[in-house]
């Protein structure tokens, strides 16, 4: 059983770099938490503080409810896997995996049993006699994982463990790692800059930028309802469309949303009206996922935005349409394109839109 809690943790390096800035984060027992963010945002430093390899400048790192700032790494019941998984080249695969057990003084018989169990769970049972140099990259990574889990740690820390592998293998190991840690019930903190990894593997994702925690939530939450504009623009491919709009609430209970030179009239009982009504007289940013916009015929009735397609991009399972609506460029998933759209390049109506981002861009002069 292991829980991790970071309370206002800050790390300032000697040269004055603020690598981690007041981060508070709870990781539950058995949870798979992914720290996601661009290079240099401080995710490895967070992980190293949890491991005890860096000391926080201020704040508390808590393990199982106890402040662990001064606890040496070896007393933390932690296993770490890094991207440059160093195996002992002169030892067999079996001996590599068994090594931590040997250090812990475990007898050969139970040691062999544990190694066999772990190797079979990782699908490397048939290569135990080989040397690391006789393995593929993926097999070597599995051995590194095996060596980390063989002592049954309470907490698993992984720093970009798949980044040196090719994309096919990465996808395969992604599923294996998340499956294995869940099977073992080990609390895991996994660092990556790869959002596909984060969204597919995590129970919850913590997104960082410049040392600051931006958002924490399940993959569905952070993708669907990002907490900040940064997260909205960072997550998802294609990126979320972000459009500036002006809001005007009419006393006879409807809302006008003006995007560029187009206005949408939203009835009061429309859920989107209530979402934007709070911003009466303001300019806001509206977030719309490509897949949340349904292309319809240009003359369709109702709250339809008009756009002109600039180009289409085919991805096999979907096509993306890049449109101009007024002065703004947006992208739309064409899966829902209407059957009567005989010409791919032309006017489109777009129905529905997504979320209001909580950002003001100043008061608008609304008529
Ligand atoms: P990456 O994905 O590239 O590993 P990261 O998000 O893990 O990046 P960190 O390695 O935590 O980022 O680094 C955060 C910031 O702290 C960076 O600006 C980095 O240059 C700086 N940094 C890291 N270690 C030190 C150090 N020992 N001394 C000074 N600055 C450091």
Automatic annotation (TrEMBL):
Signal sequence extent: none
Alphabetized GO MF terms: ABC-type transporter activity; ATP binding; ATP hydrolysis activity
Keyword line: ATP-binding, Nucleotide-binding, Transport
The ABC transporter domain, residue ranges: 4-235
The keyword 4Fe-4S is assigned to this record: no
GO CC terms of this entry: ATP-binding cassette (ABC) transporter complex, substrate-binding subunit-containing
GO biological process, any: carbohydrate transport
Name recorded for this polypeptide: ABC transporter ATP-binding protein
Originating organism: Micromonospora zingiberis
Taxonomic lineage of the native organism: Bacteria, Bacillati, Actinomycetota, Actinomycetes, Micromonosporales
